[in-house]
Every structure is written in C-alpha cells, then in structure tokens.
Design goal:
About 60% of the residues lie in helices and about 10% in strands. The chain is built from 13 helices and seven strands. A hairpin with a 2-residue loop joins strand 3 and strand 4.
Length: about 300
C-alpha cells in the first residue's frame, strides 16, 4: 500500500510539473505567434496596426500646414534618434500595397532620414482627405514652437476647408472661442505686421494692441515705432490709448491722415524695390517727387528692371 501511495504521488507531481511545462510552452508559442502576426500585420499595412514602415514608401502629407522646419532642431533630434531610436511613432495611412501617406510627424520623419534610418515605427490609420487635413492641422496647432501667424493660418484652413464654425474649431483644438477669434483677427493685420509676428519681431501682446486700432495707417505707424524704439507691450498699449484719445483740429487731422498715407506708400514702395523710398510732397499736397536711391550700377539696373525700363 505504501509503495502504491508513493508511486501515485510521484506520478501526480510529474504530471503537474509536465503540465506546467506544457502551459509555459503553449504560452510562449502563443506570444511568439502574436508577435509574428503583429509584425506581419504592420508589414502588410493592416489599418489600426503599429509597426515599422520603410521610409522610402512614405509620401509627405500634401495637407501639411507647416513648411518651415528649423535645421538646427532637426539635427539635434536626428542625433537623439541615432542614440535612442525614434520613441514616438509617426502616423500614416495606407494608399497602396507598398505606399503610405504621412498624416502627422513630418519633423520626426525628416530627422529619421537625417539619422540614416531606413524604416520607422508608424501607426497605420484609415483617413479620407478631409480627415487627414484636420488631423494634420490639429497636430500642427498642438506644437509649442508655432508662431501666432502659423496658428492663425491653421485655424483659418480648418474653418475654410473642414467647414467648421469657430466654436466647433475651439472644441477640436481645446481652446475657447475668444482665443480662436483673437488668432483669426491677426490675419486682418497688414502683411508687414503679420511678417513681424511670424519672425518674432513683435509678440502676440503687441499684436493684440495693434488689432484694437481700427485705422490701418495708425497700425503701420505704431508698428514702426515698436520696431525702431523696441517698445514694450505696455508702452504700445499706452501709445494706442493716446492716439485713440486725441481729438486734433480738422486740418491737423487731415494732415495726420495724409502723413499716415504717405508713410504707407513709402513702406509699400520700399518693399517692392528693397530699398528706402522717400516721398517729397509740397505744402498743398498736389505736387511732389519720389526718391529711390541706389548704391551701385548693378543696384540701379535691378531697380530699372523692376520698373520694366
């Protein structure tokens, strides 16, 4: 009896241990199978999957709202990718058997190319053109290093091309409607002021103060004062209040209006000819001359070409 109990107990332990080994083997096989299927799914481009996609098979998103990428920042990201790999996958949509279109992550894609990668981790999604545009714009807006004009242009595109109202746009980008409105109003400023915002010569605070000025001529005048004197936002707000509160005599008001108009003409001509242009106007405002200086014979020829001479 004792011998039988020992033999039976031994068989029970052996069976239990063997079952454990079988279970582990089955688990490992199932895990390996899942990983293999996942890799094959990514390679075959099954939507909703994540895996490595050949960089040569990825087309740039034609709806990408941003075309300016800082070269130094790209080099730094490329160095990071060389050391650690790309941590955050890009997002693409499959458009043929061996072709994908980028939805978001162009900066990461460019840096990966610089780093010498031949494939890149990617989420594979299904999206139509409008969805692609909306996703690209939203991803672009969420970047921290966008200037205010780039944000405003992205907002305007979402309204125009995705048929969104301002309140719907605010919900998409997690911003209240007044914030969206303030950005969109930047696009009503003269091009020279928009360029200064884009180039970080003046801040969003300066821009908000300028927006409150209804007259374009005064906006241009204040803008020039900011650039030439380095005025702070508070100083600009004081200047705006001062100009808005002024009630000069009619003749002086007309003189100021003429002055603003002439300054705008000078600015527009200076932009066209890439040189300082001076208007000389006589006292009765009926006659005058335009001076376009040149620094060399080549410079003169350049100006003459612009005049179709």
């Amino acid at each position: 009896m004792a011998q039988q109990r020992k033999t039976g107990l031994g068989k029970g332990l052996s069976a239990l241990l063997n079952d454990g080994d079988d279970l582990r083997q089955e688990s490992n096989e199932r895990s390996a199978s899942t990983e293999y299927e996942s890799q094959n799914s990514a390679r075959s481009g099954v939507t909703g999957s994540i895996g490595h996609v050949n960089i040569s098979e990825i087309e740039i998103n034609p709806f990408q709202p941003r075309t300016d990428f800082d070269a130094t920042a790209l080099e730094e990201l490329a160095e990071s990718i060389k050391l650690q790999g790309l941590i955050q996958p890009i997002t693409v949509r499959k458009i043929s058997s061996n072709s994908y279109q980028l939805i978001s992550g162009e900066r990461r894609l460019r840096a990966s190319k610089l780093a010498g990668l031949t494939s890149i981790p990617a989420y594979i999604r299904t999206a139509d053109d409008q969805q692609m545009l909306e996703m690209a714009l939203i991803e672009n807006i969420q970047r921290e290093n966008l200037n205010a004009i780039e944000v405003a242009l992205s907002f305007q595109r979402m309204i125009d091309e995705c048929n969104l109202r301002q309140d719907e746009l605010g919900e998409r980008v997690s911003k209240n409607r007044s914030t969206v409105t303030n950005y969109l109003r930047l696009l009503k400023l003269p091009p020279s002021i928009q360029a200064s915002i884009r180039d970080n010569q003046i801040s969003m605070g300066h821009a908000r103060a300028l927006i409150s000025v209804p007259e374009v001529e005064k906006q241009l005048y204040i803008h020039q004062e900011i650039l030439s004197k380095g005025l702070s936002v508070r100083k600009v707000e004081e200047l705006v209040r001062s100009l808005q509160e002024q009630k000069p005599p009619t003749s002086k008001k007309k003189a100021n209006e003429h002055s603003f108009q002439y300054r705008k003409i000078e600015d527009d001509l200076a932009t066209k000819f890439a040189t300082r242009v001076k208007l000389n106007v006589n006292a009765d405002k009926k006659k005058g001359s335009i001076q376009i200086p040149f620094n060399s014979e080549d410079d003169l020829n350049r100006i003459l070409e612009l005049l179709d001479w």
